[in-house]
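Intended use. Records like the one below are meant for learning the mapping from a protein sequence to its folded structure. Do not use them to infer anything beyond what is encoded.
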Amino acid sequence: MTVQGDGTRYTHGHHASVLRSHRWRTAENSASYLLPHLVPGSSLLDVGCGPGTITVDLARRVAPGRVIGLDRSDEAIDTASGLDTEGVDVTFTTGDLFALPFDDGTFDVVHAHQVLQHLDRPVAALAEMARVCRPGGIVAARDGDYETMTWYPASPELARWLDLYRRTARANGGEPDAGRHLSGWARAAGFSEVLASASAWCFATPEDRRWWSETWAERISGTVLAQRIIELGLATGEELDAIAAGWLRWAEEPDGWFAVLHGEVLCTVR
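Structure written out for the chain above:
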């Protein structure tokens, strides 16, 4: 996910490890709260679509409706454009979330997954999403809440990782604990009908632990996230390598378990 038009830096960047993580996401594991509200033939805009896996899944749910995935990153859009879209009407394009290139009331549904946490003006972003959504339509958003992430067994390296990530995200202008703020942001954006909920990812099987830990081990030690942490003076490269090794050790724990809580909102446009 990347947007433009605000004063933030995208904390994750678009390293291969990040895109690999984002390609794991589907409508089922990342937008289940929205699925019961989708109607075949609806038009849908997916802002901050990243590599597009959720977008294409949503397109299958609203087919033959038109779906557009929008992201600032050319790299992300190039990746998304390579997906199999046979049988669905889906287009991927670059654009600015704060100045969406669509007329008022264009879409039945406007969706954002893990987007608002990276913005210094999330309320303005929600208001712009509402603008391009028709009256009676839905604006849907889901974001993680990093402070509530929890794992077993205890790991000082993972605790250090979480602290560094939250501090870096805030230094970049975002709000890493966005999940708990979504309802308040939505009401501040002018929505009077807001349905809030929560759901979680859980990584507990050996395969899931290995995939999750390898992704974060690479991201904390060899991407723009690591570069930014060092630039901010929060940790050294050697410390980040130690955290990466801690992630890999945690994955080998036979009782290892990691949960990621997300906040969600469904906002009706009036």
